[in-house]
Amino acid sequence: MDELAFSDATTLAAKIKAKEISAAELLEHYIQRIKKYNPEVNAVVCMQLEKARVRAADADAALARGDNWGPLHGVPMTVKESFNISGLPTTWGNPENVANIANEDAVACQRLQAAGAVIFGKTNVPIHLADFQSFNEVYGVCGNPHDLERTPGGSSGGSAAALAAGFSALEMGSDIGGSIRNPAHYCGVFGLKPSWNVLPMRGHALPGVLTPSDISVIGPLARSAQDLALVMEIVGGSDELHNPGWTLELPKPEKKNFSEYKIAVWLDDDMAPVDKSVQERVMRVAQLAKDGGAEIDFDARPAFTSQDTHHTYESLLHSAMSARQPADMFEYLLDKRQKLADDDMTDEARVTRASALYYREWHAANERRTHLRWAWHNFFSQYDLLLTPMCVTSAFNHDHNPKISERTITVNNEKHAYMKQVFWAGLTGVSFLPSTVVPTGPDDQGLPIGVQIVGAEMHDLMTIEFARMVHNELGGFVPAPAYQD
């Protein structure tokens, strides 16, 4: 196996600083792998190689002088296409945006580079970052390195695929409906959806947009839990507006042994039935913790129903997503809403209403969300963590039917509506909770399965630490077999 290509960023940074390999050599190693393998995977969609080569050479020269740029000194990495990188397009997969060339780096990318990173390219997404798959008319289809006929997830699908195929040391993605977490699950890497707004969003946007989107966050995908924690340390904190007044100080994880944890498990739900193969992995992680002395509770739930949280999420999610659409699309949705019968409560009708909310309705949904957040707060006063599935199955076959309402997904040999699977992302996303996905190895089809580790707001580092502990016992990231050479 190509150990260099599949090492985590923390390990590679140490190798560069020990002069076991130069930043320039490591960058070229990734470039050669991309030239060889990326045409079939299509994870990396644009690069700035001349600029990256100069920066890598500067990193090596700095190291020779005894200068240390930071914890990612000279480490080559990529970011999701939706982040602004000066000189590269930011299209969000929309052909109408191909001329949108960024003239400034996103704040998160500035901070990663200030810590020494060499950002050399960007990775594939779905149009408007709005699918569980990653394909668009600008860049084409991204395949899952574990099986190119299957999705790598979305919308940070290219991010996860790049890590699984050994194209990059580290990735930055974003998540509003599982867009970090489901690609991490499908591709067998680590992913973190942080607490809302603890990582600055500025520069992860289309032109003219400065307001952070509701629910949406940015966060890392990586090949180790240590890398997730490192990115939180580097990128986390306020943007310039709040810098004079507050500093981010996330609680440090104090519990180092499974025996110190009290853990709830939410294994399945009628809102989004989970395949037995995925349930088995959640059970495996729960049993691992139990064998280590943890207290496990399969019945504990916060004080609300699945329907309450999902319908609130649905309202706020589709409202936020429709705000990204062109004005004519919103007018179409508003007209469609006005033609609905008052008693039409079908899935399509609910989505239509949510996509054209009046402010009073949005405010009511936000109030319901605040009640959910307090219910979770009370829940996590009794439990340290919650384990859940991330997705209802392992990676599914590409399905590019433009009518999403006609797509289906097969769970336990039964077909279900495609959008049902967003339940597990929304369960924690709507309430701003941090969620870390830990890979648990391949299923009997050779496809990765991840488990979602959820904590209380601002307890991001606890979820990462627990993922590290699970990784140490079960193993974690496994490179895609076809790309290990």
Write up this protein.
Helix 10 packs across helix 12 and helix 10 packs across helix 13. A hairpin with a 3-residue loop joins strand 4 and strand 5 (140-141). The protein has 2 domains: 3-258 and 460-483, Amidase signature (AS) domain (Amidase signature (AS) enzymes); 306-377, no CATH class. It is of the alpha/beta class and 485 residues long. It is globular and about 70 Å long. The protein is built from 15 helices and 15 strands. The protein has helices at residues 3-6, 9-17, 23-41, 49-65, 107-114, 157-164, 181-187, 225-235, 276-291, 306-322, 327-338, 347-354, 359-379, 423-429, 460-474, and strands at 44-47, 76-80, 118-123, 135-136, 140-141, 171-175, 190-193, 217-222, 262-265, 295-297, 385-389, 408-411, 414-417, 435-442, 448-454. The longest helix is centred in the C-terminal third of the chain and has 21 residues, at 359-379.
Please describe the topology of this protein.
Layout: H1 3-6, H2 9-17, H3 23-41, E1 44-47, H4 49-65, E2 76-80, H5 107-114, E3 118-123, E4 135-136, E5 140-141, H6 157-164, E6 171-175, H7 181-187, E7 190-193, E8 217-222, H8 225-235, E9 262-265, H9 276-291, E10 295-297, H10 306-322, H11 327-338, H12 347-354, H13 359-379, E11 385-389, E12 408-411, E13 414-417, H14 423-429, E14 435-442, E15 448-454, H15 460-474
Parallel strand pairs: 2-3, 2-6, 9-10, 9-11
Antiparallel strand pairs: 1-3, 4-5, 6-8, 7-8, 7-14, 11-15, 12-13, 14-15
Helix pairs in contact: 3-4, 6-7, 8-15, 10-12, 10-13, 10-14
